[in-house]
Amino acid sequence: MSITWPLFIQVTLRLLEGFETTCLIFALTLVLALPLGLVISFGSMSKFKPLAYITKVFVWIIRGVPLMLQIFVVFYVPRLIWDLPAFSRFNAVILAFVINYACYFSEIYRGGIESISKGQYEAGQVLGMTKTQIFFKVILMQVVKRIIPPMSNEIITLVKDTALARVIMVAEILKVAEEYAGYALIWPLFYTAVYYLAFVGILTLLFGFFERKLSYYKV
Amino acid sequence: MAFLEVKNIKKKFGSNEVLKDISFSLEKGEVLAIIGSSGSGKTTLLRCLNFLEKADDGVISVDGNLLFDGSDRSTTSDKNIRRKRLHFGLVFQSFNLFPQYTALKNIMLAPEMLLKERAKKEKLSAHQKREEHEKIVAHAKELLDSVGLSAKEKSYPCELSGGQCQRVAIARALALSPDVLCFDEPTSALDPELTGEVLRVIRNLKSSDRTMIVVTHEMEFARNVADKVIFMSDGVIEEAGTPEEVFDNPKSERTREFLNRPGF
Asked: How many A/B residue pairs have CB atoms within 8 Å?
């Protein structure tokens, strides 16, 4: 089948609908996983050893199992085993993504926080600052600067991982393109790359902007 | 009773006795130099005074306030530790300036935090708060001027030389007007040419109401600036006295050995 303008426009708009879902999965995961990751990182750095061990085992499991499998587990296990009301497909995807990404983020946070020298804490302490003041006024900004490169990496991976939502029939962009493929229309599948590339391009510019914004000091 | 009283301080890390019964006292306005080889416990002593480490036993009091007494549980808990720390200031060997803030902000940060807390507790009005804040800014600028860096108030630590960083760190430590200002080898991380400017600043700080303890390897500086010198070795005070007594007439064999090392 040759590509005609009306078909091209129809596919573009249809893919855009799928892309909306892609963006929604991306944005919700990011907004929820960023703070949850910080909580998990505090857990894994806790001085209360049992909490630290439990958190580390949890992070090991989540990072050790394919995200696709985790989506299946969240979607099917509650109703199969406990007869609970099922999550909607979309909510199951969000829950699986948030937990998965929060664990990855938590390790990046932990690396960032532990890389700040003890001297920074001590300087705050001898100046009579509280632990909270030291964390928010002294440590956090330095951590943010240090973790921007690894976070950019992880966030760009998230853009493409959203494609996994199709395993439980959530109609993100790739799923929509696959439907066309079912009618022997293959090119929309490749066309999706344009959407991903544009999105990642914008993110790359944004991260570059943040890095430059914070380049006024060195840590 | 002397201004600063330190009695029978003991500190162990595991089975390693780092401080074995350290006692000394200091009058207001005096400068104490602590010398000794690496691993003799000098830094640990300063860290105990600043409550970065908790001594296992002993007594610390400043200006009649008992801050720490190993036999009195109520003084050894972490309660009020922030208030206790404010009696002392500490200048680190590696500066530990906050890299994301300008020189001026580095000095102002801690006073600002204290003002914030006070404003909450005493319910200061916005106007009062602004007035107090202006005082903090003015004081910080004065301090920066006193270490000769007024021109650098907007510079970030990464834009300053090591010597300038250490001078900012000194101004920062002075911002809360500690009773006793401690220096932990303030010039050990600096090139020889930058050492001079920092030592000059410390020398100029000497005044009738500024009590200072300087851990240093700069023997000339200790001899010229200090009122008292302590030589530490293996966690004990091997010798103490005026600079003349310690440098010119050391009584202990170990002190003599230390001072006669090649290179001095």
From this structure: 66
Question: With an 8 Å Cβ cutoff, is B183 touching chain A?
Answer: no
Domain boundaries, chain B: 4-259
Q: Which CATH number fits domain B4-259: 3.60.15.10, 3.30.360.10, 3.30.565.10, 3.40.50.300?
A: 3.40.50.300
pLDDT tens, residue by residue, A111-162: 999 999 999 999 999 999 999 999 999 999 999 999 999 999 999 999 999 9
Contacts of residue A122 in chain B, CB cutoff 8 Å? Answer: 52, 90, 92, 96
Torsion sign over Cα A82, A86, A89, A91: negative
Residue A129, CB-side half-sphere exposure with 13 Å CA sphere: 24
Amino acid of residue A18 = G
Chain B hits for A124, Cβ within 8 Å: 110
Fold annotation for A5-213: MetI-like fold (1.10.3720)
| Residue B218 near residue B234, CB atoms below 8 Å | no
pLDDT the model gives residue A218 = 84
Cβ contact A138–B98 (<8 Å): yes
Q: What is the ipTM of this complex?
A: 0.91
| Contact call for A120 and B96, based on CB within 8 A | yes
Q: Tell me if A128 and B176 make a contact (CB, 8 A cut-off).
A: yes
Task: Give the three-state DSSP class for B228.
Answer: strand
Q: Give the closest of A117, A127, A142 to B110, CB-based.
A: A127
pLDDT tens digits for range A181-190 = 999 999 999 9
With an 8 Å Cβ cutoff, are A126 and B98 in contact?
A: no
Mean pLDDT by 10 residues, chain B (264 residues): 94 94 94 93 95 94 92 83 93 96 97 93 92 96 95 95 96 95 94 90 88 94 94 94 93 90 67
Q: Which residue in B has a C-alpha nearest to residue A139's C-alpha? A: B98
Q: Tell me the nearest-neighbour CA distance from B200 into chain A, angstroms.
A: 23
Q: How far away is chain B from the Cα of A111, in angstroms, using its nearest Cα?
A: 19
